[in-house]
């Protein structure tokens, strides 16, 4: 019989880490005597970041004494103490390759159920003073696991652990962990995992991603958003074939292959990245495709911002015959091909990706119910007014609502004066299964997302595109005021140029940084990460052009056209979708 050797608890506290403050509960201390195990926690225990740890599905973390012995040998450590891996229960027995998801056990007075392997995160490395720890635990098939509490009760060190039942499908913790993180994901096994009701919802979503992954799709669809590989690597020349004036400060460019062959089709909502000559080095900027997906040529529509470098360059130089360098269309803000109603909502130049979606609907799904909601200042700044009207005429189940914030005396073609507000959205009477696609200024999108949530649209129904850097994800790090992206402190590095395209920053790489992630952080470029050692794919980013070397090698490489910034450095000039 397995035995509970140690019960450890600890409340979150602030810990210094590389000049930042991490709020974490990974420091646990053994307790003598009985401890009450409740649905969310042991008494006296807590987690700092409930997004990644804790909660009903992850109330208790279990790690095995056998793994302590293993790591002591592999890492040459003689200082490992119970609770060191952040676990609550240190146990004798219950190995990861025998315990199954859904197994039920009685421990003391409590009854518990296994819900998922431990999630890899940098904090175990922080606690162990071994930054590779998250990756090692996966690669060596020793993750440990989480329990849900079915019956609350007292537990204490020395309690026997009695198995009550085996989870359906008898899928072990080690098997499931390898299925998600290691290469060679079997669809049959993902389907098996989905038949285990005890599996936590987060892992169920990952398993669904693996099950839905197309055969030809590279990368890990359990950890990354699925996207087709880019149609070409790096930048290729495209020729401007025509120019359209849309409004006073918005113009469209038609771009064709230099040899006249049809360009690979893009998905409705994707964007193109251009590399243009600039006074202080190349200007790398992204523009959503605004024309009909599948056309032999691409159309982008550019708003010339006052003092905007790329907009000004294109305004001055774009004419038929100009060659520009372009990276392949990419992006996961794309129209789904389902049957449910669609809300296409935009403000100002944010109309571009949803125009491509409107073209796609008119061409291929004319019977789909569509709500077209757009906000502009007035008729003179209303881009694509005639084009969208014509497309909407071809959609018999379309509804239109145009808001002009400052309509002029001559303006007639709008529905309401003012901005797009929650009241406007309420008045649309959207069906509850509507899929919403939003594009506009950041603050506006935040308000609209909240308002759609209040109307009952879940997060999975609301998709948005930002014309700038996306929000960062820095688990457990205390919030600090966000500084705009800037070159790193100190003299410029001697390495190749790295363009953080969404942030509009190009800076030379310096080998004094351990990874592109650390380099981006030094530039205050918003980044997303969790394990920082090549396992979780949270840091996956678009590699628009260039090559990188990995160190350490990631547990599994990301899909083509992407990179993991936490464990890579440039070996050539880079353009990153960050
Ligand atoms: C996925 C994606 C899709 C996009 N799609 C589109 C699209 O379809 N159409 C489009 O037009 N844009 C789009 N963008 C935005 C585009 O990439 C550029 O960021 C934007 O056009 C500004 O680029 P710029 O070089 O002209 O301006 P920048 O030189 O980068 O300037 C940025 C801002 O700073 C201001 N600024 C710069 N210098 C000064 C100064 N000296 N004084 C005061 N203010 C200053 C500018 O007015 C501008 O508002 C998209 C971005 C992304 C990430
Ligand atoms: S942060 Fe986990 S793979 Fe990069």
TrEMBL record:
Transmembrane segments: none annotated. It comes from the Bacteria. Coiled coil: none annotated. Pfam families: Fer2, MOSC, NAD_binding_1, YiiM_3-alpha. Residues 29-164 form the MOSC domain. InterPro entries: 2Fe-2S_ferredoxin-like_sf (IPR036010), 2Fe-2S_ferredoxin-type (IPR001041), Benzoxazolinone_Detox_Enz (IPR052353), Beta-grasp_dom_sf (IPR012675), FAD-bd_FR_type (IPR017927), FNR_nucleotide-bd (IPR039261), MoCF_Sase_C (IPR005302), OxRdtase_FAD/NAD-bd (IPR001433). One of its GO terms (molecular function) is 2 iron, 2 sulfur cluster binding. Signal peptide: none annotated. Residues 233-336 form the FAD-binding FR-type domain. This is Sulfurase. It comes from Catellatospora chokoriensis.
